[in-house]
Design a protein that fits this description.
Elements: H1 3-33, E1 40-43, H2 63-69, E2 75-79, E3 81-83, E4 92-94, E5 99-104, E6 118-120, E7 135-137, E8 144-147, E9 150-152, E10 193-195, E11 204-207, E12 210-212, E13 219-223, E14 227-231, E15 234-236, E16 241-247, E17 254-259, E18 262-264, E19 278-282, E20 286-291, E21 294-296, E22 301-305, E23 314-317, E24 320-322, E25 327-331, E26 339-341, E27 353-355, E28 358-359, H3 369-376, E29 380-385, H4 391-398, E30 406-411, H5 420-424
């Protein structure tokens, strides 16, 4: 066989693969734009109007208006662009089971969550209007889907202009209320995605999203029944925990599958780095299947298992851990006992399944070098100035009162904003583990 014929055969095979992928993509878009049940609502922030009827030819302008208009079980399709809610409200409340998909081209002919990023990113001034989670799913959630969005609090938060800004990082440290930058509204200490404990049970899928710069959890969710699937997402620069999911039923526990997520740079409760700052937090009354995640660069630990949830309800398999500052796995088998374990020690934890976990830095993982360097060198320090001979302290001493002084604190980095466009580059960075390119 000539080399030309070999190349021709190879070209034909590649053409067939591309054609098959195009057909598969068209079939997926067709299924979303014409769902088997319910109707499809279309949203385009650039060309739509809330006075439209929400068809592909006459889309709505705002996601929250589509949510309001939709009936239980409907599908909402959102084109590329940056959204902040009607009147810049800065939040979305979903009070019925809906399927929301982002990442569409303006004419809805193609879907690619990276090339056609759908970004919900309210400005800081929205925090003066409403102080809510970025997205809330409440009441009935059975069958709900949230897929293909960049959910970013990075513009709504307040950041210091004078402290905690390593070279190359775009903001100073995160400011928590009552502190705020001059002219700002204070940071909203709410999760990016909240599913309150009073919500009715049901199956929920959270997939192919970016959760960035959350001021109080990436996802914080109660599961009454059914299965919550948190799969193929990127979590970066969130505070407290990237994922905290807990059971709310006193009877048969629900389930949580946490799989193929990339979880990086989760920050502690305060800038002293003393507590919280976990990638995944195992809570109570819930079964967990945690597998094929990338979990790295978290201030306290990769996975926290200290709430005495039943070990037989937990599977932890094929995850990659690296550069978690306190531990890869924090474990309390009983009251007043705490082990901070490395990935190599996981095999001795008596979980329902624990295998294939490893400690390594995924070679293809694209991370902001400036942010990484700042995180690796993040430090907190304090200096106390106590003048025991001052008249005030002498008087306090005579009366048996505590002496007073001043404390100056300094932190080199804490909760700084991570650029959402660079977070999108993490999809597909490591083959088979972490978030894959949809």
């Amino acid at each position: 066989m000539s080399r030309f014929r070999q190349y021709a055969g190879l070209f034909l095979c590649l053409a067939m693969i591309v054609a098959a992928a195009s057909v598969a993509g068209a079939q997926e878009i067709g299924a979303l734009t014409a769902p088997e049940t319910g109707r499809a609502w279309f949203v385009n922030g650039a060309t739509g109007s809330n006075g439209n009827d929400g068809t592909k030819e006459a889309p709505l302008k705002n996601i929250d208006r589509a949510v309001k208009n939709a009936a239980e079980g409907d599908t909402i399709l959102v084109s590329e662009g940056i959204y902040s809610g009607t009147f810049g409200a800065g939040y979305i409340t979903i009070d019925k089971p809906l399927k929301l998909y982002g990442g569409f081209a303006p004419d809805f002919s193609a879907r690619d969550i990276v090339a056609h990023a759908t970004v919900f990113q309210p400005p800081n001034k929205s925090a003066a209007k409403a102080r809510e989670p970025l997205v809330t799913m409440e009441k009935n959630v059975e069958g709900s889907v949230l897929d293909g969005f960049v959910l970013d609090m990075g513009m709504r938060n307040s950041y210091s202009t004078t402290e905690g800004q390593p070279e190359g990082v775009e903001t100073g440290k995160l400011l928590l209320p009552p502190a705020k930058n001059s002219g700002d509204a204070a940071t909203v200490e709410k999760p990016i995605l909240s599913i309150p404990s009073a919500t009715q049970g049901g199956n929920v899928t959270i997939s192919n999203n970016v959760f960035a710069n959350g001021a109080n959890f990436g996802i914080q969710a109660g599961v009454r029944s059914g299965k919550m699937r948190i799969v193929n997402n990127v979590f970066v620069a969130n505070r407290m925990a990237a994922i905290e999911v807990y059971g709310t039923s006193g009877q048969e526990p629900g389930e949580a599958e946490i799989a193929n997520n990339t979880i990086l740079f989760t920050w502690s409760r305060l800038d002293d780095f003393q507590d919280m700052g976990y990638g995944i937090r195992i809570m109570t009354k819930l079964k967990y299947d945690i597998h094929d995640n990338i979990v790295g660069g978290n201030i306290k630990g990769g996975v926290d298992h200290r709430r005495y949830n039943d070990d037989d309800w937990i599977k932890l398999d094929n995850n990659v851990f690296f550069v978690n500052k306190t531990a890869d796995f924090s474990y309390s088998p009983e009251s007043n006992v705490l082990f901070d374990l490395s990935v190599d020690e996981l095999v001795d934890v008596p979980l329902a399944s624990v295998s294939g976990n490893r400690g390594e830095i995924p070679q293809g993982l694209k991370v902001s070098r400036a942010y990484l360097d700042g995180y690796l060198n993040a430090r907190y320090s304090e200096q106390t100035d106590l003048d025991r001979e001052s008249p005030a302290n002498q008087w306090r001493s005579v009366l048996g009162m505590n002496l007073v002084g001043t404390i100056e604190t300094q932190v080199t980095m804490y909760g700084n904003r991570y650029p959402w466009k660079e977070a999108l580059e993490m999809f597909g960075a490591a083959s088979g583990v972490g978030a894959q390119r949809p």
